[in-house]
Every structure is written in C-alpha cells, then in structure tokens.
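Extended Data, record Putative polyketide biosynthesis zinc-dependent hydrolase BaeB
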Amino acid sequence: MFVLETVLTDGIAQLSYFVGDTETGRAAVIDPRTDVEIYEELARKHGVSITHIFETHIHADFVSGSLSLSARLGTAEIWLSGENAGYQFPGNVISDGETFDFGGFLLVARHTPGHTPEHLSFEICEAKNPDRPFAIFTGDSLFVGSAGRPDLLGGDQTEALSEDLYRTLYDYYLKLDDFVTIYPGHGAGSACGADIGDRLCSTIGYERRTNAFLKFPDLQTFQEFVINDAPPVPWHYPELKKVNASGPEVMDRLPTIRALPPDKFRKVMREAGVVILDTRSMLAFGGGHVSGAINIGDRPEMSAWVGQLFDLDQRLLLIVDDDKEVEQVQRLIVRTGHSRFAGYLAGGMKAWEVAGLPMESTRQVTVEELREMQISEGDFTLLDVRSPAEWESGRIPGAQHQFIADMRDRISGLDKAGRYITYCASGYRASIASSLMQSRGFSDVSNVPGSWGAWKAVGYDIEKPEEATV
C-alpha cells in the first residue's frame, strides 16, 4: 500500500515528507529536519524501512537532518542533486530524469532551478503509469499561491535565477496535468516565498488558475514581480546555506545542557560569547527578568527568531518557565543551527528570586492605556516593529517604523535616554524588541500585549499609508 505523510515543522513552516510502500517495505524521506526521530517513528508506524533520503536543494531557513537521519538509521542513503550543486559532503548524485523504484510507485527526479541552481523536484508515479505523475514534491520551486524566491544567493545571481525560475514554472509545471497534486517544501509564514498560501498542498490546475506567479505573459514582467515582491531576506539564511552545503553536524541526540544554580548562572552569564535567552511569556518576562536577557517566548516561531537574532557561535544561556521544558525549547532552537548551550537556570526565576539576586522589569501597556497616553501625554515614541508589509497595510496612528530584524546588530536613530513603547501583531515580537533595547542600554522601554490585534479589536482608529502622506 502507498503511504504518504506530511511533517509540518511549525515556526519555520517547513514541510518534509515520508513516502513508502508497505508491500515492499521501502520508504523515502524528502528534506528531513534536524530532529529526525519523527521519521523513524513513521517508519515503525507503517512497518517499513527508510532506504532513501532526498534533498531537493541546499536549504537556507533550517538545518538539514539528512546526515543525522542517515547516521541514526544505518539503512538509508543520501541522494543529492548533481546539477550545479555546491554540496561538500558525500552523497549519491542524482541526474535529471533519474527514476527510483519503490515497488508500487516511482519517484522521478526533475531539475527545477530558479530558487537555487541545483534545485530538484520529485514526481510521484504509479509503477504501471511511469510517464504520468499523479503528484510531485516541489521543494522550494512552486508553493501554494507562490513560488520560490530567486534572490537568496545574492544580487549577482538573482537575474539568472529568476530566468531559471520562469522556465521552471512555465516550461515544466504548467505543462503538467491539472490533477497533479503539489506537495511544497514550505507553508504559510516562510520567508522562502512571498505570501505562501495557508493550505499544505494544492493541484497544478488550481495553481494555474489562482497563482499570481503563473500569470505573466513574458519574462521581464515576471522578473519585476518576483524580485520586487519578495520579503526581506532573514539575516541567518546565508549562514544556514553554508552550514547545509558543508554538511551539518550529525545530531543523534540533543546536546546536554548543564543545570546551573543561580550563583553559577550569574558567573557564566558574564563570560564572553554568552547570551541570555529567556523563553517565558512576555507577561512573565515583564514582571521580572535577569538583566541583559532577551525574551523570545517558547512558541514554534522561536526557531526563526533565534536564528535571526543570534550568531551561530554564540553560547545560549536559557531561562525557562519550568525545568521540564528545557528539551522542548532546545528542540526548537537547534532547528535553525544553534547547538552551543552554556546551561540553563535550574529552578527558573523562582530560584533567582529566592537567592535575592537583582532583577529588571518591563512595563506592559494595554491598548487602552496606550490610547489614553497618546491623548494626555505624548512624550514617548511608539515603535511598530512589524515587517515592512505589515506596516504598509495599516498601523497605529503616530507610530514610527522600526523593523525588529534590523535591530539585530544595532538600533540606529534612537536616543537611549528616550521613552519608547513597542508593538507588533500580538505582542510577541514587541517583547523581543523591548528586551533587545533594554539589553543595549535603553532606559525606558515598554511593550503592548495584544498589540495591533488588540488595538483593532477595541475599534480604535488606524492609519493607512496614504493617510500618513496627506
């Protein structure tokens, strides 16, 4: 029996796939993530052996788990593109059109460049109909409602890759049958494509009729659209490209993290290269935290924000709400390449508090308080830390835009002695921003729980871009 399972990695919106045949007992994994136990669990669930691991391309937004999965299983070979590839670790080379027989179904490799030069997609065909695919793993070439961005390798390659992407979409995908199901490498929320749709799969026919990337009459207008419409490139993408090309560290288990009592924690936090990551909720962090800590809450999107804000060689010192959550938090962190841990605060902030050690707080301003402050005080700067696209779609009147991703290395144009209030869509990124500012010497920073969502929910006025320029 044919089996296909989609593995969604929340936070980075990455999609990997497990596909197999229970009759022959053979299976493959496409684009595995770092923590690979889930694929072994799926193999046991279906009573098959993973014999093949396929990479569609060199990934930029997460650390590939191919080497770790191969080492863990001992039964699976890694297969990599041989087309303009930059892989620096051993693997079997795949050529365009190469076919892999799993019994009742075949996987056929297709060179689909554009997002990257080496990019592969894999058609799924019944063994009895080898020339008529019924589905395809598209990697980062074609998404639901979008397509892969061609600008991640730098401006000198963007034009050529955008032309490759056009040929891939128009000369390959649009020539497939309407009924062919597409299984992409990412879902909504990934920066690997612009405005990726919410559904995890689609069909060629549906995309033909609805996907804006498939509606351009010529290459030039397509290039203008695909280059100009792309979201900002996250800082860590080029770094993860290098990691995945050279061969990620084999991780057969999560790294050991030392449990540190408050006095030892305080000593370690002063060591060079150490950053304090407080993973509690924004309200808990606001109530009291260790000076210098950065608040990135324990939610799936933590993976992307840790990758975005911290260097790979920095050592992370963790504060969690409960010691039992250390492994869960660590799992999210390693997905974007961070495997250096200086330890965690044993007993959490309660232990720090009982030890009588100093704490800072961050004021939480409700939207009602913010509105009243705008009317009665006005001696503060309201910072909108959302993305440029969110900012352009509408904002709180009087706000100044300060995209949080641009705060990574420096916070320019702001007086550290000033008074600031940060907001985002929900408060999550606002708390990251306010904690970054506090850690760098800003003396009066608050953030808004609920943020833009709460502001709209209570019906306060909003400002549109055209209104701001009148």
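Summary. The first helix runs from residue 37 to 46.
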